Each structure stands twice: as C-alpha cells, then as structure tokens.
Amino acid sequence: MEKTDFKKRVKEFKKEFPSLKEKVLLKDHTAWRMGGPAKYFLEIKNKDELEKAIISAKKINLPFFVLGGGSNILVSDKGFRGLIIKINNLGFEVEEKNGKMEILAGAGLSLGSLSAKLLKAQAGGMEWSSSIPGSLGGAVFGNAGAFGSCLSDSAEWIEALEVKNKKCAFKKYFKKNCAFSYRSSVFKKKAPNIIIFSVCLSLEKSKEGEISKKMKGYADFRKKRHPLDFPSAGSVFKNYYKPIKNKKLVLQFPELENFNQKKEIPAGWLIEKSGLKGKRFGKAQISEKHCNFFINLGGAKAKDMRALIKFAQKKVEKDFGIELMEEIIYLP
Ligand SMILES: Cc1cc2nc3c(=O)[nH]c(=O)nc-3n(C[C@H](O)[C@H](O)[C@H](O)COP(=O)(O)OP(=O)(O)OC[C@H]3O[C@@H](n4cnc5c(N)ncnc54)[C@H](O)[C@@H]3O)c2cc1C
Which is the catalytic residue, given 235, 274, 287, 326? Predict the structure, then answer.
C-alpha cells in the first residue's frame, strides 16, 4: 500500500473510532510496569465495535494485539507499532439451571471483580482465581490455574471473534473445541486470530461464608509465598511435567525423587537450584522469595527483564538439561 494511501486510511480509521487513543504508554497497562508506547489503543465494549475495528485494521494492514489486564505480558521498551485492542466487556448474568449456576461473564471483567460478583451470587468453584490479577479473557487464553484447579474446569463455552484474512465472525467454542491444556488453549495456539468476548461458566450453588473462607485462604497463601510488594507477571515459566532421570542429579538433589513421583518439577525450584536466587540485570531481579517470579525493582527495562529470562532459561538447561518454557507472552 502507498504511504499516502495508508495515511488516508488511518485518517478514516480514526474518524470511525473517535475514542481511539494514540501513543499510549503500555507500562501503565501492564502488571510488570514496563513497556513503551502503543501507536494506537482502542477500548472495546461491544461485539459490533470489535468486529468493525478488526476489519478496519485488517484493511490497512495494521497489526493488532488483544490486551486483557496486562498481567502476563512483557512489552518491549520500544512499544508496539500497531493497534492495541482492550476488551472491556464487563457483563455479568447469572441463571440457575438444573441445580447448577450458569454464569455469562464478559471477557474484560477482572478476576477480582468476577470473584466479588460470584461471592454475592453464592456461586462456588472459582475461588482459586480470586487473587489472580488479569481479566477473564486472559485467564481463558492461558487456561489460568492455581491450587489444583484451572479455568477449563468451569468453562462451558466461549464466545469469540474468529478472524480469517479480511473476514471475521463470532463463534461459540464449546469446551471440547477449546483445546485446553496446561496454560494453553486454542485461543493461544491461534493468537491473535480468536478474540474472546464472553465466557459461560458452570458453577455450584454455595454459601457466601464458605466462598469467602476459601478466597481468604488462597490470598493468605499468596501473601506468604509470593513477592507481592513488587511488580511482576506471576510465574514467568511453566513448571516441568516430566521426571528427571539423571542419577547424579537425583543424588545431588534428593527432593527430585518426590518431584519425579508427582511428575511435576517446579520451575522456581529449578531456577533456585541453578543458583539464580536474587540474580539481577539492572532493575530486573529474580525474586529471593519465589524464584519463578521476576520482579521490577523500580524503573526496570523490558530489555533487561527479557535478558534475565533468557539467562535463567540457559542456566537451567545447562544445569538440569531441561528447557523451561515461558508462561508469559512477549509483545512484540
Ligand atoms: C502476582 C501475579 C500472580 C499470578 N498468579 C497466577 C496464577 O496463580 N495462575 C495463573 O495461571 N496465572 C497467574 N498470573 C498470571 C496472569 O495473571 C494470568 O495468566 C491472567 O489470566 C492473564 O490475564 P490478563 O488479562 O492479564 O492477560 P494479558 O496479560 O493482558 O494477556 C495475556 C495473553 O492473553 C491474550 N488475551 C487477553 N485477553 C484476551 C481476549 N479477550 N481474547 C484473546 N486473547 C486475549 C493476550 O493477547 C496475551 O497474549 C499471575 C500474575 C501476577 C502478576
């Protein structure tokens, strides 16, 4: 496309979306408090707006990225030369059906506010998510989980916009078509081409007291174990789900026998045993409290955080022969 033609189309795009913002600092929209400006930034509340925005962006070849709560992304210091679409569908409806609580919730709801609404509705089953930052859409995307539960346990179907070339259409994805697995889903595999708009959850009728007791227990656990005083993105790496058979390593680290039996080796443990507790690049640091949390000590550069992540990955590979996979998403 000619430059003048592109400029003309961008002008039209801006006219079509008067609420479009420009040069929005992404560090103000991420839990890590890092990241440069987004060229364009658009908040979306309804399906029509979403469909129109994607079609228009596609027409002018403008790359787009869907932002939830920004709690699982590392944005480059240079920012993103495209369109950020922030899903702001905050809908919430409850219906009791055959003894179950059916919840239809907007993808833009934060897990915290969703939990408050579920508590009021006395719907149990999502308590594990109450102190996780981020949006419901982001939680579906990465099949977020904690304390032995995950989003896919309660998901019934997801309404999402499927983007194909210059066309798009809303589609219902029933659970069996969501390819949910550990921190993954069809939405993640096909990103950014399926945009989650609303989520149907099937929960149990419960009691306010029971729900809030569980929520408090989980929040207390997090306060004790996680470095919540510093900006982070939660766990940087996925845990490792295969046994380590190297006899020398098992002799050196007897805890491995226990992990091997459970077939789950915590990424934080691997990083700690690789001697990286407290390792720093600039203002980016591997937390001393929990080594799978990489914290921003204040004014950290995304460049340093990314280098620290890659450094930890290489060191664990050298020491344990394991390639840790990131849970976080890089933008771009
Ligand atoms: C202190 C802390 C603790 C955490 N603890 C946990 C934990 O216990 N368990 C856990 O699983 N995670 C945890 N996390 C990570 C994070 O909170 C979750 O992964 C959360 O679900 C991410 O949602 P988000 O809306 O912030 O996503 P974002 O960071 O905004 O985006 C993450 C990815 O999801 C995509 N995405 C977001 N919304 C949509 C949508 N509507 N449609 C399509 N794609 C979308 C984005 O494009 C991006 O690729 C923690 C994070 C922090 C900071």
Answer: 235
